[in-house]
Amino acid sequence: MSSSAIALITGASRGIGAATARLFAQQGYALGLNYQQDHGAAEALATELRAGGCRCILLQADIGNEAQVLAMFQRLDTELGPLSVLVNNAGILQPQSSISGISAARFAAILQTNVIGTFLCCQQAVQRMRTDLGGQGGAIVNVSSAAAKSGSPHEYIDYAASKGAVDTLTRGLALEVAAQGIRVNAVRPGFIYTDMHAAGGEPGRVDRLKSRIPLGRGGEAIEVAEAIAWLASGAASFTTGSFIDVCGGV
User: Fold this and answer.
1) Mean per-residue pLDDT over the chain, rounded
2) 3-state secondary structure the chain
3) Catalytic residue among 29, 35, 156, 159
4) Within 13 A of 238's CA, how many CA atoms are on the CB side?
5) Interval 115-159: pLDDT, tens
6) Is the pLDDT of residue 1 over 60?
7) Is 159 known to be catalytic?
8) How many CA within 13 A on the CB side of residue 74?
9) Of 159, 211, 153, whose CA–CA distance to 189 is shortest?
10) What global pTM score does this model have?
11) Do 221 and 192 meet the contact criterion of CB atoms below 8 Å apart?
């Protein structure tokens, strides 16, 4: 990857986002690292990447807030330059529950971040990348979930529904902007060892469920990051509207 390539990674302070940031830094990207709350973790990651020679900036924003997303992209324009790659990784999860325990407010909050937030970031990226508006094209990689296919019954049907929407957005947007030099794809992680499971109330969830995984183990964040990096790269130049399931065969 050219040292001039610029990538924005949302939810970059931990888990899959941080693993992707480290991999992209090794590949020569300049990085916009978005985070919402954990400034300490984001700052530690930025310090680590800068020590390795990566040019990166921190971009605090709630992706579900349109004004904050607009301000984030404007800062990226000013401080780094033209966007080449967007990785929509930020997402939220609420504690495990059956449908009777999921309020409308909870469901709306999940959709606001996971769906509206992804849409808002896609919208801003497309405006900058599309060739008919003077852009140079680019790649968008959305982080969906294997839950989009399983439905995650008795645990996270609201989260699963939000990721189903991300899948449909990915496919539709890919077809809409293909002629503008923009590729849009998604990865669907399965049971991956990240801190997100603690937000769902079960930090050890992957170990509990790994017997269901044909490969016999949980996945690591770097294994998802590798799929993201391929979809973002020129090696995937003829791939758009597609999905990579990183789920051990589930």
Assistant:
1) 96
2) CCCCCEEEECCCCCHHHHHHHHHHHHCCCEEEEEECCCHHHHHHHHHHHHHCCCCEEEEECCCCCHHHHHHHHHHHHHHCCCCCEEEECCCCCCCCCCHHHCCHHHHHHHHHHHHHHHHHHHHHHHHHHCHHHCCCCEEEEEECCCHHHHCCCCCCHHHHHHHHHHHHHHHHHHHHHHHHCEEEEEEEECCECCCHHHHCCCCCHHHHHHHHCCCCCCECHHHHHHHHHHHHCHHHCCCCCCEEEECCCC
3) 159
4) 0
5) 999 999 999 999 999 999 999 999 999 999 999 999 999 999 999
6) no
7) yes
8) 6
9) 159
10) 0.96
11) yes
Closest CA to 16 of 86, 125, 83, 91: 91
Distances (CA, A) of 248 to 29, 143, 150, 207: 28, 16, 14, 14
pLDDT of residue 201: 76
Residue type, position 8, single letter: L
Please name the amino acid found at residue 233. S
Tokens in use for 203?
């930090």
User: pLDDT band at residue 2, thresholds of 50, 70 and 90?
Assistant: very low
- Locate 39 and state its tokens: 């400034």
Q: Give the count of beta carbons closer than 10 Å to the beta carbon of residue 157.
A: 18
Structure tokens at 26: 């090794």
In this structure, the number of other CB atoms found within 10 A of the CB of residue 154 comes to: 10
| Plot region of 14 (φ>0 → left; ψ -120 to 50 → alpha; else → beta) | beta
What strands lie across the sheet with 138-143, from one edge to the other? 56-60, 30-35, 6-9, 85-88, 138-143, 182-189, 243-246
